[in-house]
Amino acid sequence: MHWQRKPTLNAFTSTVATSADGAQAFPIPDNVFAETVTEVRHYTDRLFRFRTTRPASFRFRSGEFVMIGLPNAERPVFRAYSVASPAWDDELEFFSIKVPGGPLTEYLQKVKVGDTILMRKKPTGTLVIDALLPGKRLYLLSTGTGVAPFASLIRDPEVYEKFDEVILVQTCREVAELDYARELYDEVANHEFLGELAAGKLRLYDSATREPHPRQGRVTDLIDSGKLFSDLGVPPFDPATDRAMICGSMAMIKDTKDRLEHFGLVEGANNAPNTFVVERAFVG
Ligand code: A2P
User: Fold this and answer.
1) What pLDDT digit, counting tens, does each position of 160-174 carry?
2) I need a surface site. Which of 23, 30, 104, 164 has the fewest CB within 10 A?
3) Range of the domain at 53
4) pLDDT band at 10; cut points 50, 70, 90
5) pTM for this structure?
């Protein structure tokens, strides 16, 4: 991980995309970036991450998402992907589910280093620090690939400048699905510059629902039972001090939002900052 954002040269200069398996090449549509895959890592048979080159002109705020596609059709399918890397990184990282028969992920899960990924040029999203009022403790509440925007935020120094405590919460079905966030946590803790900023502030609280784990159960159940707070040694959600971001499935968002509202937190947006914000994780 590099600290300073370095300008990168995009090796891809042709207007026709090729894929490593020699599949048919299609022209690159107008108004998209064509980036090269630099790394692929499969965590489980359901989850993988990939990294790509970053266009020198691409700017985003940590926590935002972009539309991603593949050059495998005349009119490629695009899906929303949170950028999992921080704004200062000279590459882009994405964390994805593999949906059998999914219009994009069926093919995306097969990408290899050197392949071309298409990316629409405009990032957007509500999981940004600016959409929250100042506070002391930031909860990043996620399930599955919903952790991706938070992977960006926990690597952003601004988060540690703005909050005294940053608690990354992730629930997954299986224990191995928690590895991505665990590794990130270690990466931040051991990072030359971030490590110092995050020391004593960043905490990871993960749980699994379908395999034995020291913290068993959905994030919502852990909130309801109070176990989340007692394990962390913090008081229950308090709108005076606590801020939250939620990212997961539609059902998870609704259920988690209900809990936050029960404690008096109020949903905010880019143009109306408040005490929590939500975004649906990409699925399909
Ligand atoms: P569960 O195993 O009880 O369904 P998925 O892969 O389906 O998106 O689920 C990821 C994780 O989110 C799973 O651990 C799942 O638990 C949990 N989950 C699913 N629905 C909800 C919900 N409504 N609220 C909280 N957690 C949920």
Assistant:
1) 999 999 999 999 999
2) 30
3) 32-120
4) very low
5) 0.92
- Beta carbons of 63 and 127 less than 8 angstroms apart: yes
- Strand 242-248, strand 137-143: pairing: parallel
Position in ligand 1 atom list of the atom nearest CA 281: 8
Could you give the percent of the chain with pLDDT greater than 70? 91
220 C-beta closer than 6 A to ligand 1: yes
Indicate whether residue 255 lines ligand 1 (CB < 6 A): yes
The domain boundary, picked from 120, 137, 169, lies at 120
Pairing state of beta strands 65-69 and 79-82? antiparallel
Check if 252 has its Cβ closer than 6 Å to any atom of ligand 1. Answer: yes
Check if 213 has its Cβ closer than 6 Å to any atom of ligand 1: no
In angstroms, rounded to a whole number, what is the distance separating the alpha carbons of residues 209 and 223?
A: 14
pLDDT of residue 282: 74
- Which residue, 71, 86, 120, sits at the end of a domain? 120
pLDDT tens across 197-218, in order? Answer: 999 999 999 999 999 999 999 9
- Sheet of strand 116-120: strand arrangement: 79-82, 65-69, 116-120, 32-42, 47-53, 91-97
Q: Separation of 250 CA from ligand 1 center, angstroms?
A: 10
